[in-house]
Design brief:
Blueprint (H helix, E strand, L loop, with lengths): L3 E4 L2 E3 L5 E7 L6 E9 L6 E7 L4 E3 L7 E6 L4 E6 L8 E9 L4 E3 L3 E5 L2
Parallel strand pairs: 2-11
Antiparallel strand pairs: 1-3, 3-8, 4-5, 4-9, 5-6, 7-8, 9-10, 9-11
């Protein structure tokens, strides 16, 4: 069974930083892309950042220049480094991965709260 386990969320002041981690139970090369999505209260889930198996990345416009997605293939882990956090970044962040057969797996989510 494929599992994605997130960690690293928490409460941070505006302007602060957090690094989210997503550990996969299988080799992450099994995924065509891995990504971080988020869902704020009362809003739809949105894609924040993605990274392909060849390392190509894409970002939501509002996080460009502040967030960085990366992967450690040896550890089967994907990271989201979040800098200069803003209150509007407050959400539950979900790790997800899409396989080459278009099956998408999701983690359980980790809460990120940006507040003074």
């Amino acid at each position: 069974q494929v599992q994605l386990v997130e960690s690293g969320g928490g409460l941070v002041q505006p302007g602060g930083s957090l690094r989210l981690s997503c550990a996969a139970s299988i080799n992450i090369f099994s995924f065509k892309t891995m990504a971080w999505s988020r869902q704020a209260p009362g809003k739809e889930r949105e894609l924040v950042a993605s990274i392909s198996s060849d390392g190509g990345t894409n970002y939501l416009d509002s996080v460009k220049g502040r967030f960085t997605i990366s992967r450690d293939n040896a550890k089967n882990t994907v990271y989201l480094q979040m800098n200069n956090l803003k209150p509007e970044d407050t959400a539950v962040y979900y790790c997800n991965g899409e396989t080459y057969t278009t099956v998408r797996y999701w983690g359980q989510g980790t809460q990120v709260t940006v507040s003074s």
